[in-house]
Structures are given as C-alpha cells and as structure tokens.
UniProtKB/TrEMBL annotation, chain A:
Binds 2 heme C groups per subunit. Component of the cbb3-type cytochrome c oxidase. It comes from Alloalcanivorax profundimaris. Keywords: Cell inner membrane, Cell membrane, Electron transport, Heme, Hydrogen ion transport, Ion transport, Iron, Membrane, Metal-binding, Oxidoreductase, Repeat, Respiratory chain, Transmembrane, Transmembrane helix, Transport. It comes from the Bacteria. This is Cbb3-type cytochrome c oxidase subunit. NCBIfam families: ccoP. PANTHER family: CBB3-TYPE CYTOCHROME C OXIDASE SUBUNIT FIXP (PTHR33751:SF1). Residues 125-206, 218-298 form the Cytochrome c domain. SUPFAM superfamilies: Cytochrome c. Its cofactor is heme c. Belongs to the CcoP / FixP family.
TrEMBL record, chain B:
It comes from the Bacteria. Keywords: Heme, Iron, Membrane, Metal-binding, Transmembrane, Transmembrane helix. It comes from Alloalcanivorax profundimaris. SUPFAM superfamilies: Cytochrome c. Residues 52-186 form the Cytochrome c domain. This is Cbb3-type cytochrome c oxidase subunit II. The chain crosses the membrane at residues 12-36. InterPro entries: Cyt_c-like_dom, Cyt_c-like_dom_sf, Cyt_c_oxidase_monohaem-su/FixO.
Length: 303, 210
C-alpha cells in the first residue's frame, strides 16, 4: 500500500472516530436555559415534548464502542499500513495454524512411516488418519464406503486388478494406473452374433449354471475357440493378469457391469480406465498411511 | 448548545443526504483504495486467459447456475486449504467478469478443482448422473450438456469484449487462433466438453503451489 493510500485511510478512520466523539459530546451538553426548561417547547393538542438528556446506559455503550475501536486499531490492522501491535493477518494466522498442526502430526507420520504398510492397518490411529485421507482424496471415485462404482473398482472385496500386495497398492496410488482394453469385436469375428456369443461365454465363466440353457451352451461352444484373442491379456484360464491390470473374468466381479449388454459394450468399444497418480499431491508419509488404509479395507477380519 | 439536531430531524431531504455521507465513509476507507492496489488489480504472473472452449464452458457454468451451489473462493483456513488447495488471492480473479466466488456451499468449492487428480471421464459421468459415481450426492444431473452442441455465435464478440473492455491480454492473433479452433476442432464440441474444459482450467495458475 502506498504512502498516499495509507494516509488517506488513516485520515478517514481518525476523522470518523473524532467526529463521533464530538457529536456525542455536543449533544450531551445543554445550555443552562435548556436545562431549566423541562420541555423542548413543542406543544400540540396540549401535549408537550419533554427535553431529556441521553439515557446513561446508551451513552456508556456509545463511549464503549469508541474505546473498543481505539483498542482494536492499536492491536489489529486498520490504520493504513500500520499492522497493529499483534501483527495479526489472516495469512499469518493460517500459517501458524498449519505449522502447529504439522508440528503435532509430523511425529505421528514419522512413527507410521517406520511400520510396513501391511502391518500399519492394524493401528487404529493410522486407520483413522487413513480414513480421513481416503474421504478427501479417494472417495470421490471409489465411494465413501470404498465399494466403488461402475468403472471405479471396489476396494473392499480383495479382488485386485493390479495386485493386492502392500507394494502394488502403494504403486497404484503413487504412480497411478492406466487400464486399456482395446476394442475386440474385429478380433473375434466382427459380427453382432460373435460379440453376443462371446459376451455369453464370458458371463458363463463365473456362472457355469447358465450353460444348462441349450441356446447359451451352443453360444459358449461357438465362442470358446475365439477366446484365444482374449487370452493374451486375460490368460488361457481367464483369471486375468495383474501385471497388465487385466481383470479376472471368472470371479463374478464386474468393473464395467455384469449384464450381457455391458459385456458386449466392453467387447465392442474396449475400455479405458485411468487411475490418476497421487505423487506430489500427497506427501510420501501420507501416501504410506493411505496405502495401509486401503490394504486394510479387505482385511478387517484378520484382527 | 442549541438544538442543531432539530434542524436535521425536521428536514427529511437533509437527513437522507447526511445519512448517505455518513454511510459512505466505510466504503471510502475500505473499498476505494482497492481500486489502486497492485494486489487486486494486477494478474498473477502464472494466470493465462481462457481459451474459447473454456470461455464457452464458463458461460454454461453461469447459465446452469453452478455458482449458486459451488463457491470459487478458498479461504485462508487450514481446513479449507487441506481439502481444496491453496487459498484464493485477488490476483487470480483480475480477468473474471463477472467473478464467480459464490456465497453458498451446497457442493464443494471448485476454485482448485482443476488441480485435483480427477479424470476427465469422471467429470463427464458425474455431470450426466452424479449419483452414478457419488451415491450420496444431492447434485442435479445435467445430461443435456452431453447432447447440446456449443452455441458459438457470440464467441468472437465475447473474446473481443474481454480484450477491449476488460483488458484481458488477448492479441488479435490469439482471437483469430481461437476462432479458427472454434470453426475447426471445436465446431461440434458439446456443452459438456466446454464445461469439463472450464472445470479442468480452474486453479491452474496455482499448480506449482499444490
């Protein structure tokens, strides 16, 4: 703030305070003549207006606000560039608050950092901290109950696209993941029938009872040889490949929907899933606690 | 002292004038100096003007009333900076006309939403049906954004108004470039494309501080 504006503000503030004080004092005083008369001299219909001094309690409140203003302006910013004796500002208050919390939590995070991810989830305090971090950073996609949504994996079912080891989870969070399934319709024949057959076959992998329907059984027989195209990623036995993030197709857990229509869409259009990386978004210590929390989500029975 | 105040009390016009004078002191001390402060009139060094697509998204953001439930103002409080990102400063909003700070948070603050690791795909799914991705959300769905294409008829004028009236440093070349994109790659852009582009642009001036 320039010198000019500083003086400009100080002048207005001081003039206001002085003006208020003068106004108050002027209105306090009565001439001896006014004081002698009990009325202002107004009279209407025989009713006279009395001339009363300002009530004391009101007067003291007024004086009190003036004193408060002076004390406030001495302690807090208000007079141009003068920052007040307390040196308060919203930014320094924020900085102090952040520093205070950091001082309190850093030893805690250091202590957590010494515990391996696959043990840390058993510490209730770490779980609490992890839960807050999860709510703020992960719940938007994976849900506040961590059960995910269509296209966003459920983290509580112990079914892992990229592996459920402590390391794999930490890597998923830190580096992010890119899941890519190309459109596969052409590779399995390209016709609507071929896609439908394959969808039924894939669905039947986790629901063997489906093949009791002869129509489904026939479709499955037609699709089976073409699954070779899928096996490159999902494996010959269709149990997936965690190195590629190719899901297990036999476990009845469906990231992009379990209906035949959903599976057909997946085959026709492929899927692109992107887990953003959180390196640089959260500190390493926090990522460690978060990984432990996610690790613990599907292991609550162990304790 | 005579009853000078009776002069004011008996003359309404004079009383109105003097009341206005008394009230104006607050604004003279607190608001007028801001028009000449560097902190409020100079854009941050990292600020860049909106692209035409982001500008269209911003207009749709206003049309749909997003600012009624979402603020764009992170206050310097730890709980807010922890949740959203760096607190807002005046230098970020020098080119905002009108500013979209909002005053009510039914939904979360969006001033830093572009800095959060949220995928574009998530934004699209969320706009079409918020409960698809956040079951407990009470945000309305905006499925028509994905169906409507952007109405570009006013964009050239909008950019010129921002350049000439609001002092946003678009060069004539910039505006030509943007309009070429509008006629080219963005010609068939949906309103959803525009809103998502706008949302992802929010907070980018503060990327280094995240």
């Amino acid at each position: 703030m320039s010198q000019f504006w500083s003086i400009y503000i100080i002048a207005i503030v001081v003039l206001n305070l002085v003006g208020c004080a003068i106004l108050l004092l002027v209105n306090l005083k009565m001439t001896p003549e006014e004081a002698r008369n009990e009325t202002t001299g107004h009279s209407f219909d025989g009713i006279q207006e009395r001339n009363q001094p300002l009530p004391r309690w009101w007067l003291f409140l007024f004086v009190g606000t003036l004193i408060f203003s002076v004390v406030y302006l001495v302690l807090y910013p208000g007079l141009g560039r003068f920052g007040g004796l307390l040196n308060w500002s919203s930014v320094t208050q924020w900085e102090e608050e952040v520093a205070l919390v950091e001082k309190r939590t850093e030893p805690l995070f250091e202590q957590f950092a010494k515990v391996p991810v696959d043990e840390l989830h058993q510490y209730p305090e770490a779980r609490d901290v992890g839960g807050r971090l999860f709510a703020n950073n992960c719940a938007i996609c994976h849900g506040s109950d961590a059960r995910g949504a269509k296209g966003y994996p459920n983290l509580t079912d112990d079914d892992w696209l990229y592996g459920g080891s402590a390391d794999a989870i930490l890597t998923s969070i830190t580096q992010g993941r890119n899941g890519m399934m190309p459109p596969m319709a052409a590779a399995i024949g390209g016709t609507d029938e071929a896609v439908h057959d394959m969808a039924l076959y894939v669905q039947s992998l986790s629901r063997p009872d489906m093949t009791s329907d002869p129509q489904v059984a026939a479709a499955v027989e037609r699709a089976k040889p073409k699954f070779a195209a899928c096996a490159a990623c999902h494996g010959q036995d269709a149990t997936g490949n965690q190195a590629l993030g190719a899901p297990n197709l036999t476990d009845g857990i469906w990231l992009h929907g379990a209906r035949v229509e959903d599976i057909e869409t997946t085959i026709r259009q492929g899927r692109n899933s992107h887990m953003p990386k959180h390196e640089g978004v959260l500190s390493d210590e926090r990522l460690h606690v978060l990984a432990a929390y996610v690790y613990g989500l599907s292991r609550s029975d162990e304790e | 002292m005579a009853n000078y105040h009776s002069v004011i009390e008996k003359n309404v016009s004079l009383m109105i004038v003097l009341t206005l004078v008394a009230v104006s002191f607050g604004g003279l001390a607190e608001i007028v100096p801001l028009f000449w402060q560097k902190a409020t009139t100079e854009p941050m060094a990292t600020l860049r003007p909106y692209t035409a697509l982001e500008m269209a998204g911003r207009d749709i953001y206003i049309r749909e009333g997003c600012h009624v439930c979402h603020t764009q103002m992170v206050r310097p409080l730890r709980a807010e900076t922890e949740r959203f990102g760096p607190y807002s400063v005046a230098g970020e909003d020098v080119w905002e006309h009108p500013f979209l700070w909002g005053s009510k948070r039914t939904g979360p603050d969006l001033d830093r939403v572009g800095l959060r690791p949220i995928t574009e795909q998530w934004h699209r799914e969320h706009l079409r049906d918020p409960r698809q991705v956040v079951p407990e959300s009470n945000m309305p769905a905006y499925p028509w954004l994905a169906e409507n294409t952007v109405d570009w008829s006013h964009m050239e004028r909008t950019l010129k108004v921002f350049k000439n009236q609001f002092g946003v440093p678009y060069s004539d070349q910039d505006i030509d470039d943007q309009m070429n994109k509008v006629r080219g790659e963005w010609a068939d852009a949906t309103e959803e494309d525009a809103v998502v582009a706008y949302l992802l642009s929010l907070g980018q001036a503060r990327r280094e501080e995240r």
